[in-house]
Amino acid sequence: MGISKTEIFTDQQNEISVFAKVFGHPARVAILQHLFKIDTCVCGDLVNEIGLAQPTISQHLKELKHLGLIKGSIEGTRVCYCIDADNWTKMKHIMQEFLDQDVSAKADCC
Amino acid sequence: MGISKTEIFTDQQNEISVFAKVFGHPARVAILQHLFKIDTCVCGDLVNEIGLAQPTISQHLKELKHLGLIKGSIEGTRVCYCIDADNWTKMKHIMQEFLDQDVSAKADCC
DNA sequence: TTGTTTCATTGCAATATTACGATGAATTAA
DNA sequence: TTAATTCATCGTAATATTGCAATGAAACAA
């Protein structure tokens, strides 16, 4: 139905999928990589850096902010966005625990 | 337009987002965790393990298989699925490189 | 004040995803 | 052969996502 039945999954499974979903669009990956690369950033720079319209970038920034991965502060008419280091680290541990699952030799049965 | 403009992003950005997207649904996270937990698996077990209909599980398995993260072999009337260890490792390195980006102290400007 | 800049929000169209009933294909059992 | 089992595929409905033009809100400049 286009809606995920989140209630039948564990909190951990839902948390992993929520973080993964936000990385599931190349524009948001590009935004995060750009924020990592430079030290200070404003939304306008991102519109130039990435080839999407300003409302589209703003929408992607909103999603990243909603998950706590970035934070923004108003600087006059501009808005300064950057990575939220603490929340990024927390997310990283959750994702790495999922990615680091070991495959036993026996598992390779097919 | 509901379609990602993949052509304006780098191959690396697109690759990260494609892997992330497949983890962006709790059912697929649950399927992978189950395949890691037990050593051999058939689709029917997954339908019982996860509370979704058989065609839905089959559809999620198809997406995981398409990315090469799992592989399946026919065993009579059943199909045995398991993690593709090599491809999982490759994917893990790509995702970890993205997650492991360092945040400089200066970046925390907001 | 008026205009300018910058970013957020609204509204909408196009497309993608999720879920499942019905059905099909392949194998096994009787 | 016929029936049963198992999983894939088809078709479709409900919902979500993506993208942008138009517009709004807030701060600054003249």
From TrEMBL, chains A, B:
Is Cell division tagged as a keyword? no
Name the PROSITE patterns on file: HTH_ARSR_2 (PS50987)
Its keywords, alphabetically, are: DNA-binding, Transcription, Transcription regulation
Start and end residues of each HTH arsR-type domain: 8-106
Q: Drop me one GO molecular function for this one.
A: DNA-binding transcription factor activity
Question: Does the UniProt entry include the keyword Transcription?
Answer: yes
Q: Which domain of life is it from?
A: Bacteria
Query: Protein name, please?
Result: Winged helix-turn-helix transcriptional regulator
Record the organism: Gelidibacter salicanalis
Q: What is the lineage of its organism?
A: Bacteria, Pseudomonadati, Bacteroidota, Flavobacteriia, Flavobacteriales
